[in-house]
Amino acid sequence: MATIINMPRLSDTMEEGVVAKWLKSVGDKIEEGDILAEIETDKATMEFESFYEGTLLHIGIQEGETSPVDVLLAIIGEEGEDISALLNGASEKAPVQQETAVEEEVAVAKNDSAAIPEGVHVIMMPRLSDTMTDGTVATWLKKVGDSVEEGDMLAEIETDKATMEFECFYEGTLLYIGVQEGETAPVDSLLTIIGPAGTDVSALIANGGVAATTEVADKTSETTSTSTPVESKTVTETTKTVNTTNNGRVFASPLAKKIASDKGIDLSDVNGSGENGRIIKKDVENYTPSQKATTQVAASDAVSVTHTTEESSEEVKNSQMRKAIAKSLGNSKFTAPDFSLNVEVDMDNAMSSRKTINAIPDTKVSFNDMVVKACAMALKKHPQVNTSWTDTNTIYHKHIHVGVAVAVDDGLLVPVIKHTDQLSLTQIGAGVRDLAGKARNKKIAPTDMQGSTFTVSNLGMFGIENFNSIINQPNSAILSVGAIVQKPVVKNGEIVVGNTMKLTLTCDHRTVDGAVGAQFLQTLKTFIENPVTMLA
């Protein structure tokens, strides 16, 4: 599914930007970490980095053109994908966004509540993704009274999708912190104030930092300012400014520097794959340090174990990802009238077939891959299950995109295998392994988790034999897959040792009736028990 990228807000005062240069053209393949464009604000020119993979399908703002923040900048998706609906929607919204920007400037001009002391910079809670409405300060890396230099990390901020570092591009002293560690605040609320030591900022604090907006109204009279704005960030990373000097400085993104510092890696030993040789996150993550460095890091991380008989508890602040999961699953459980159906599947033929398939060189197919393939084929025969409910219509999806639930450290993600019914078992297996790996390494793109029409959740590897899942809306059903169990079964009138697996289908009764769900399960059972039917 295509992803819209809007003109980013690269500072807390930015209202519009100019595309100075496009570094990619329509039709180019885009990888995570590629620099898409150079964007000018009223104070600096910054590189804008992509954290999506795909093809650049559309450029909405040409070189030299000026555009308000949040107006369509580019679209990235699958090659040949139809984006006409996205383009029509963007054109309808653009005038509204422009009008809003003008109204905000008028409001700013009228605000004369307080003047900003010279050299003071008010920093608001940044919007780190296009869907972010509030953020949680996970950790402050600086405290009030600390001297701050350009490039220093101020804090780690959680959104619903990731925890990101927030970098400072001002110099001075940290005078005030408006959002404490663990607290959540809306975007554009007062985060911190930086300026000369000893400056009285009580008036700014009392006004929630609102006087900072006068910088926008008076920006035409500040052309001599040398301060660089605090950068906003894209969905999963910080947008960075690369300084090109000849003083031997190592060019690396802030996050790459932080990871390298945590791992004890000397950045001068790392080869950069970013623009102009810049070191980015994946370069550090893929770097293998020397044995000595590894030993030193391990030694420094050693923790002594103590024992206590005292009772104790610890409150852990909910991450934004956990909040998003709770909200989504809560909405599903309390709005969808669901019911569950169970069936037990004979896995003897599936086990034999898998062994034969995996005997082929460079081939690896799991039982889960076979279940996913069988689901896709069963959905073709029972389109009522491949639907979504709305208040006015039932949407029948002509395409089949199966989501596969993957457990990660912070919760649960659902990568989506697009057009699953058109893929072979080996293609499904490769796709699931690739996306699951990206999910666990926090490298998965939002587009890889969008558009599912059905979901599979497998806990068999944990020895769970039977369980019910909550529907992943807007899907109409989800399949829970249990462990393969060896037990006595009856075959041809005799008790023999067999291998069985339990499946549970949870359905939204608004779109899937009991008989439809039962027929789907019977078809699914037939495919799994006779794997040769999935190879045709």
Attribute tags:
536 residues, alpha+beta, OB fold (Dihydrolipoamide Acetyltransferase, E2P), Chloramphenicol Acetyltransferase, 3 domains, six-stranded mixed sheet, four-stranded antiparallel sheet, 11 helices, 25% helix, 26% strand
Question: Can you describe this structure?
Answer:
It is a single chain. The two termini are 28 Å apart. Helices cover 25% and strands 26% of the residues. The protein has a six-stranded mixed beta sheet with strand order 17-26-25-24-20-23. Strands 1-8-6-3 form a four-stranded antiparallel beta sheet, with helices on one face. The chain has helices at residues 84-110, 202-206, 214-217, 254-263, 281-285, 291-300, 320-335, 348-358, 367-381, 425-440, 514-529, and strands spanning 3-6, 16-22, 29-30, 35-40, 45-49, 54-59, 66-68, 72-77, 121-124, 134-140, 147-148, 153-158, 163-167, 172-177, 184-186, 190-195, 338-346, 387-389, 394-396, 402-404, 406-408, 411-413, 416-417, 454-458, 477-491, 494-508.
